[in-house]
Every structure is written in C-alpha cells, then in structure tokens.
Design brief:
The structure holds 3 protein chains of 3 kinds. By secondary structure, chain A is an all-alpha fold. Chain A contains 14 helices and no strands. The longest helix of chain A is centred in the first third of the chain and has 38 residues, at 17-54. Chain B is built from 11 helices and 10 strands. Classes of the chains: A mainly alpha, B alpha/beta, C mainly alpha. Chains A and C meet through helix 2, helix 5, helix 6, helix 7 and helix 8 of A and helix 1, helix 3, helix 4, helix 5 and helix 6 of C.
Chain lengths: 332, 287, 303
Amino acid sequence: MISAQVRRRLRRKTVSPLGRALQHGDILFKGALILASLSLLGLMVGVGVMLWLRSAPMRTSAGLAFITATVWNPVGEKFGAAPFIIGTLTTSLLALIIAFPLGLFIAIFLAELCPPGLRSIVGFLVELLAAIPSVVYGLWGIFVFIPSFVIPIGEALMKSLGDPQRFPYLPIFQGPFFGASKLAAGLILAVMILPTIAAISRDVLLAVPRSQREAALALGSTQWETIWQVVLPYGLSGILGAVILGLGRALGETMAVTMVIGNVAQLSASLLSPGYTMASVIANEWGESRTPLYNAALIEIGLLLFFMSLLLNILARSLVWSVARKTPEQRA
Amino acid sequence: MTESAIVIPMRPHVTSVADVRAVVRATAEGDLETKMKLEKVSVFYKDFVAVKDVELAFYANKITAIIGPSGCGKSTLLRALNRMNDLIPGARIKGRVLLDGEDIYAPHVDVVEVRRRVGMVFQRPNPFPKSIYDNVAYGPRLYGHLKRTELDAIVEHSLRRAALWDEVKDKLGQSGMALSGGQQQRLCIARAIAVEPEVILMDEPCSALDPVATLKIEELMRQLAKEYTIIIVTHNMQQAARVSDYTAFLMTDEYGAGTLVEYGETKQVFTNPKDRRTEDYITGRFG
Amino acid sequence: MSEFNGGKELSVLPRAGKLRLKRSAIRERFRRVNNAFMLGLTGLTTVVGIVPLVWILLSVFAHGAEVISIRFLTDTFKPTSLGGGGILHALVGTGILIALASLFSVPLGVLAALYVARNPNTSLGLAVRFGTGVLSGLPSVVVGLFIYTLWVSGHGYSALAGGMALAILMLPVIVRTTEEMLRLVPKSLREASLALGAPEWKTALKVWLPAAMTGVITGLMLAVARVAGETAPLLFTALGSNNLSTALDKPIASLPLTLFKYAVDPSKLRNAQAWAIALIIVMLVLLLNVSARLIATWRSKMY
C-alpha cells in the first residue's frame, strides 16, 4: 500500500514542471556539448576561410604567380612571396638537418638506455626547451647566441668553405657575414624543434613491442644492433611523423626567427646572408602596411602558411599513429 | 639433480637404422653428454624469490621438458639459461648455470655470444616486419662478410631444417608477418637456427597455435634434437609426454618460489612418478 | 651485466659442426666496440641537447637579475630620458589578457572535452580530437591574423581581441588535458550518480568534473604557460601600448610585446630591461610547468 504522500512525490518526479525542466536540462546540456565541439571545428575551418576571403585583393591581382614572384617591393606595390617561401624552407630544412640526428639519438637514449628513474627527469628537461617562449629565444639569439656561437662558426665557414678562390661553385658559405643570417635562424630553430623530435620519437620507440627486442637479443645481437636494425625500422613511420611535426613547428616560428635573420627580402644562395621567412615578414611588416593590397599580400602569405602547416600536421599525425596501430598479423 | 648413469630408454620414436645406431653408440659410450647444467640456481626479482635452488642437467641432443602449474617459475628458469632475465631490472641470480662446463654468469662472460649459442623461440611468434628472407638472414648478417650465394645457402638450409622451405621458397620476399601462426613460429625457429646455436630453448612454443600447427612443430622438435639440444617449457602435459626424453617438474613452495620436485626420464616420470606431488599434477588433481 | 668484454672465458668460435657462418674475431671485436661507441654517443648527445637549455636559463637569470627590482615591477613606462621606468603596464596587461583568454577558452574547452569523453567514438568526437590536433599545430602568427580579420578590422586593436587570439592557442591544451583526466575517472562513479537519479548535467558538473578537477587545473596551468610568452598573435590584436590601462576595448601592453620592443631597441637600457622581462616570463613558465608536473605525479600516485 503506497501512502498518498509517496504517491504525490512519485508523481512529481515524473510530470511536475521541475521534472520536465530536469529532463530539458539534459537536452540543454547535451546541446551545449555539441555546440562547443562544433565551435572548435568551426574555428579550424574559420581560420582558413577568413584568410582566404581577406586575401582576395592580392589573389585576384596576381593569382598563382604570387607564389613564384621574387620581387617584394611594397612601395611600388609589387608583391612576390618567393623570397619568403624559399627563406622559410631553407631555414626549416637547415634546422631539420641538425635537429633530426640529435633528436633521434636523444630519443634512443631516453627509450632504450636511460635508467627508469632518470628517464622522467631528463625527458622533462628536454621538454622544458620547448616551453621557453620564442621571443626569449630571440633575445638570447641576438645578444648571446649570435655573438658567441654563430659568428665564430660562420666566420670559420666563410674563410674555409666560403672562399671564392678555392670553392667557386659552393656559394652557400660565402660572405659577407654580419651575424644576422639564415644560418643563425636555422641554428636557433634547430634548438627549438629538437625537443619536439626527441619527445615524439621517444614515444614512438617506447611503443615498439618488447617481443621484437627480445627476438633480436635472443639471436645474439648487441644492444645497438637491436636498436638500429630492429627497433628503429619498426618505428620508422612514427619517427618520420616526428620529423614532419618538427618541420611544421619550424615553419611557423616567428619571433625568434625575425629577431636573428636580418629581415631582408632578397634571394641569396648563401646561408651567411640575411634572409626573410613567411612568418617573420608578416610579423615584421604588419605595422607598416598602409594599403589594402599590402595587407592582402601579407594575409595571403598567412594563408599559405596555414595550408602548409595544416598539410604537414595531418601527414605527421597519421604517420605517428600508424606505429601504435601496427600489430603483427596472426592468422590461424 | 642426478648425473649418474641413466639408462637410455628405448624411444618409441626410433624408426630408422641411423637412429638405432645412434642409440647403441650412446649406450656403448656409457654416458650422456651434459650440455647445460644448473647448480643450485635461484632467481630473484628484487626481493621476490621466483626460483629456488634448482639442480638440473640438460643432456646433449635430447629434448628436456619443464612442466608445472602456471606461475611456478618455468619461464623464469628457462630465461636464465640464455640470460634473458638480465633485461629485467632488479633480476638477480645465485648459483651457476653451466654451458659445456663454463658458467655463463661469470663476470667477464660475453652475453652476446651466450645468446648466440643458446637460442630461444618464444611463446608468441615474433618475426620481424621484414621479408622471410631477411628474417632468417638477420642473424648471419650480423657476422658480416657473407656473399650473396653463401647467405642464400644459409637461409635455405635453415628454412629446410625448420620444415618451412617448401612452403615459402617461392615467396621469400614476402613479409614474415603475412604467414600463418604456425608458419611464423617455424620461421622463428629457422631464424634461430641460422646463427648455428647449440641449444634451443622453447618457451611454450605451441600455446598460441592451433592443433595442426602444434603437431607439425612437435614433429620438427624431434628432428631438431638430432642436431641441437632442446629444452622446452610447456603447460601441456600430453605434449611433454609425447615429445620429450627427460622431464623436470617444478612447483611453487609455500613461499611462492619455484622448486624442482622431480626430474627423470619422461617415461618414468609419467608412468611411475617418485614424488606424490608429481603424481597429483600428472593425474590432474591440480594445476 | 658485462656485455662488452671480448668473450675471454666463453669460447667465441663454436665447437663443432659444419660451419656456414664465417666468423672472424676482428668482426666480433668490432661489433662490441661499435656497440659501446654508439650507445655512448647517445648519452653524449643527450648531454649536448641539455646544454642550450642551461645556457639560456643562465643567460636570462644572469642578465635579468641585474635590472630586476621592486621599482621595476611597480613603476609604469617612462621614456629612457627619464630613466626607463618599469613594466607595471606590461604586467597588468598580461594579467588582463590571460584572464580574458582563460575566460574564453576554459568553458568552451571543458564542454568540448566533456563531449569527447562521453562520446569518444562518434564522428563528432573523432573530428574534435582531430581538430584540436590541427589547432595546436597552427602557427601563432596565423591565429593572430585570423582574429585581425575576424574582429580587429571591424572593432580596432583591443585587449579583447588579444584575449581571443590567446584563447585559441589555449584551447587545444585545455581540451586535451581535460579529456584525458575525464577519461581517467572510473566509470562506476558516474554510473553511481546516474543510478541515484541525478540527471546527466548534474552528474557531469557535480561528480565527473570535480573528480577530474586537478587535471583541469593542471591543463589550465599548462595552457597559460603556453601563451604567457606568445608575442606574434598580439601584434595583430592587442597591438601593445606604453600606457597603464585596463580598458578592454583599447590596445594594451603585455610582457612579451614589451620584451620584443625593448630587445630590438638601440638603447642599451632597453636591452637590459628586456632581459629582466625575459626573466619574469621564464620564471612564470617554469613555475607553471614544474607545478603542473608535480601535481600530475602526485595525483597519479593517488589513483
């Protein structure tokens, strides 16, 4: 026998306005979650859309030739993005050439050799490198790194490999050299992307199944042979992904690069001469752009940067995930 | 445990004249050659005693099975034979593990060479994500300086001895991981053989395979015993009875450490066990 | 484990049998020496990799300590002719920008994370995970340009715009950390609450989220550390200023922008001040990172 009081309470739970509101509350709640998720996606798309729209004046006036035009003359309203694209690629590639072997070896140390207690501390230190803001790297670059490291190395390179008498066909180390240069930018970028490559490669190597290492060791391999011939090949696609992610980071670096590269929009084959990258020209010349076309040109460079980093990002992620998903096929 | 002369059992698997001659020769020489020996071996993981005071001898060209309920330290014991336990941080060993009379845990022993001489096949087949050819050639290539023809010969020889050659000779370039489970395990055996070991350890090699593949591998083991010393860990008693010449039965004591309960010729252990616990295990009263 | 000693006691060459493997003692020796060498090289490389970190930290601390003082932190901008002043305007500006950015990014990020944690395998859930990854890879310049085109061109440079740009940079960190923490909370906890009759939203807000709260906070800390030093996006949004201001609809100063301006200034005084600002930023970033790490390890021990 249910008492009247309880019956009333039960009724309230199901048909009272409060009850209905509670049910609607859940609908609101779920709606809010979906809205938030859609907004996030919308942002991603929105960035590309807005940049596309606002770069219209430049795109319609020059079309695809913008990418290959080499003259950047704001005063004469002539805009070509080639010097920046080449500058970006040069400095990023230089950074990769240095950071990849270093990062790989650090990853090998962390994943295979480091005693477990030390692993988190050392890993943390490497990741701290990534936490230092770009502008601080730039400051250190101007006043410490260039004078005490880049200039000695650059001058040594200039005097040896850059001597036009001895190596007339090797222009990449020829002078004049005053410190601010693509070399400086490449070296600083190398330090900045090193933690990315090292940390992700380490995770990739740690994901390689133990059974692979055991198989190699049980055959009488040394530890290095195991790493080099079994573990690394197994994780190769993931490591490639790490490299591409590092490249993506290097492409977008703005402040450190603009503070050490010299910001001169000329094409030069020498690493020792000043240069310009896509990110740094946007940052550097934004304040000075007065005309709509100038603005649109800079925005279009931003659009190009957006596409490049988007592409690299997607490519890298799928490569990194492919190692974790790789399982030995076992059919009956 | 016992080194005294053990009468060679007349194995029901003796079928060819060569086999008979081999058995007669061994009997005439009066003793079995001890390939590996455990002298009061205990294995510790940090403070936990996994295996305690085991004394065991493994005879050359014989198949010795190590059986026991799960968790009794069989695999730990096996891995002590090729120093794979070294890979586990905190693992220690007491006692001596002798290979041809030399302690493999002596301070200046070269682990890499130990592992070449004492090969291992694992519970789950673990071929490299390389071609069949490269899987087998991996070991020999470490030693370098082999011409292509010599390498080809080694690969073919190993695959034949692993009873896999006929099935894969036309697709050596295919990935080793594309084979079936039983084939993968035979590939792993071929890979292990290619570095010319003297002992082959097998850690439950058939537990991940179907019955047909299992039988193929058991047949293979008997062939392999002619050239190598085989030591196999198995939780399948019937398999041990079918395949092995000698059987060691391990069990955990009251502290959780694995100890040797009984060791002898397989026929004797299974039909006339000396220890009550062995009898209980074999008749299925536990484990 | 004595791996690298040339096997003196254990014979290197096998005993008998037809040998196919052609082994040479020289090659064997090489294998082991090469092993020791390469492994040592990886250790050396790691040390070399840490050197820049130490170098930068030492430079920042050494140069920055020379200028840091209470006056420096409490005075606002003054021209060099009057002594250079301090950075109060930048401190206040950064504080306001981070507060705005957190206000924009935390609710949005937490809600999105809740969605992904509840429905990880729906197409929207997968898309959000993908989207956060993409957003985190966007160059910050591009984000700044985006907010410019979206807002600044219509409403002018302002602290609000700066907050929006920084919020976009904070979002991926918040979503990822919050989602991970939400997933760590045992499902039984949520199910218990639901079984008692609590509606979904109450369960989420009163049971699920609080259980993951330390994770959300560490996520916020890491996100702030990420944007505390960001300069590029502010160039197109907050613009920077020499005035001490709290107005949200006008340009506003910030630590990284001021650092940049002073670093490239020809005056040595400004350069020295730039180092001091770098010191403050680096300490803030270090503090946030280390604390977040410590909290995470402390928390993981509890679970």
